[in-house]
Amino acid sequence: MKLTRFFFGLCLAALLATCARHPRPTRLSIFDVVINHVTLVDVRTGQLTPNQVVAISKGKIVEVQEADKDSYAAKQYVNGNGRFLIPGLWDMHVHFRGGDSLAAANKKSLALYLAHGITTVRDAGGDLTPQIFEWRKEMVAGRLPGPRIFTSGPKIDGPGATWPGSLEVETPAQVRHAIETLKGMHVDYVKLYDSKISGPAYLEAIRQAQRRGLKTTGHMPYTVTLAESIRAGLDATEHLYYVLKACSGKEDSLTAVARASQGTAKPLGLFALLPAVNSTYDPAAAANIFALMAKRHVAAVPTLAIGKTLTELAETNHDRDSLLNYIDPKIQATYRRRALSAQQQSAEARAFSHQLETRFMSLVAPMHTAGVLILAGSDSGPFNSYVYPGASLQQELGLLVQAGLTPLEALQTATINGAQFMGVADHTAAIAPGKDADLVLLTANPLDNIANIKKIDAVISRGKAYPAASLANLLRAVRNK
User: Fold this and answer.
1) Is 96 within 8 Å of 306 (Cβ atoms)?
2) What angle do CA 387, 392, 397 make, to 5 degrees?
3) Is 346 exposed, middle or buried (0-12, 13-18, 19+ CB in 10 A)?
4) Measured distance CA(430)–CA(44) in Å, rounded
């Protein structure tokens, strides 16, 4: 009897030793996507965690653990060996616009965003809102590859607005009706524009939107100050023209000049006053407005890439740009109009544009240091010449690093910062169980060099993996014939 127990004990010990040497059997669950032996990049801390496995089902990350502990069955396997996994990138300023005649052309750009690792975009106002809502339905149903879209719907502006489809407001009643209209459309936030809107209507729109729980962002008429807008409840400012005005030691005087000119034959606005704004830059005023923005949690979207592209438009020939092959000819036609205008600028105007872009670059690092939330946005879309969907966001991150951010900080502007601003950080922009499976697999570490975000091996969007070959097919499908 004792001898039998002895042999049973030996067999049990041998069995346990065998189990310790080999992974457990394949699980019964079959995951949609499994990425194995990958290095995770934590975009909050910069920590790298090598040799991990990420399992995805129904559009969500369901497991993250050290590789080789278990075997995983999956519909799609993605090799992560020697690769780096980051959350999908966000472009926080794009445009879908041009009316029905450009709707199909705009739709093609969705593939370009995805192929460049952009899994979420924020549409900053246009006249294709019904189409955007339809695209979102198609993407959720799995019929259309493309990024998630947050949209403002139509812009709010004054009478005689520059952009078609804008909601034109002048009186408090008109402002209230416009905000209620946007609320009824279920837009994600409110975009304000400054071509015709009055200062009082602008501030009233901010207050009305805030009362209805809608975030506000956009341009700003030079008849109000940024501090006034922030105190009214503004949530973000697009581009840096308006931040720069607040950095002027003569901001109050310049604002008074703009107000006094309203109703005259030549009302003064942004472009007329920019030289005076730039020449009166005051570091103390800059520090004050940055502190107020940080205190009130007001974000800034620098859009450096479009500034650089448009500043160099007259001296750069874009006819042989490789990405031009993927831009619909109808949108290319909108590019040429702005290029022609740039070529007609005087040498003095071109020189000032270069000075202005240098100034904008100098604002980014101090804003970030002061605690202002920086959001990466490209401003790509029809009429914004040669600012290519997807690639321009990659360019934006490179420029943010040139402006003084670290690669990690630049990545944050295009991942967790966007999610935080849109109020969805609890379920996206991170690699952890329960988060949305919107990811980018890179062949090199982006923390070593931000340019490595261009080295894309696969994109995971809504839980579906698009390896390099699939991304190439997406591009091939929208390439001009």
Assistant:
1) no
2) 145
3) exposed
4) 9
DSSP 187: -
Its pTM stands at 0.93
Tell me the C-alpha distance between 114 and 132, whole Å. 16
Residue type, 191: K
The secondary structure element, H or E, covering residue 458 is strand 456-461
Q: What are phi and psi of 379, to 5 degrees?
A: 65, 30
Task: Give residue limits of the domains in the chain.
Answer: 86-152+235-247+282-478
Residues 6+ apart with CB under 8 A from 283: none
- The matching CATH number, chosen from 2.20.28, 1.10.10, 3.30.2400, 3.20.20, for 86-152+235-247+282-478 is 3.20.20
Are 390 and 116 spatial neighbours (Cβ–Cβ below 8 Å)?
Answer: yes
Q: What is the pLDDT along the chain (481 residues), one digit of tens a residue?
A: 444 444 444 444 444 444 433 344 445 589 999 999 999 999 999 999 999 999 999 999 999 999 988 889 999 999 999 999 999 999 999 999 999 999 999 999 999 999 999 999 999 999 999 999 999 999 999 999 999 999 999 999 999 999 999 999 999 999 999 999 999 999 999 999 999 999 999 999 999 999 999 999 999 999 999 999 999 999 999 999 999 999 999 999 999 999 999 989 899 989 899 999 999 999 999 999 999 999 999 999 999 999 999 999 989 999 999 999 999 999 999 998 888 888 888 999 999 999 999 999 999 999 999 999 999 999 999 999 999 999 999 999 999 999 999 999 999 999 999 999 999 999 999 999 999 999 999 999 999 999 999 999 999 999 999 999 999 999 999 999 8
Q: How many of the other CB atoms lie within 10 Å of CB of 460?
A: 28
Output the DSSP codes for 392-425: HHHHHHHHHHHTT--HHHHHHHTTHHHHHHTT-T
Sign of CA dihedral 439, 440, 445, 450: negative
Distance separating alpha carbons of residues 247 and 228, to the nearest angstrom: 14
CB 62 within 8 Å of CB 433? yes
What is the H or E stretch that residue 238 is in?
strand 236-238
User: Residue 228 class from Cβ within 10 Å (0-12 exposed, 13-18 middle, 19+ buried)?
Assistant: middle
Q: Which neighbouring-strand residues pair with 446? A: none
Residue pointed to by tokens 């991170």: 430
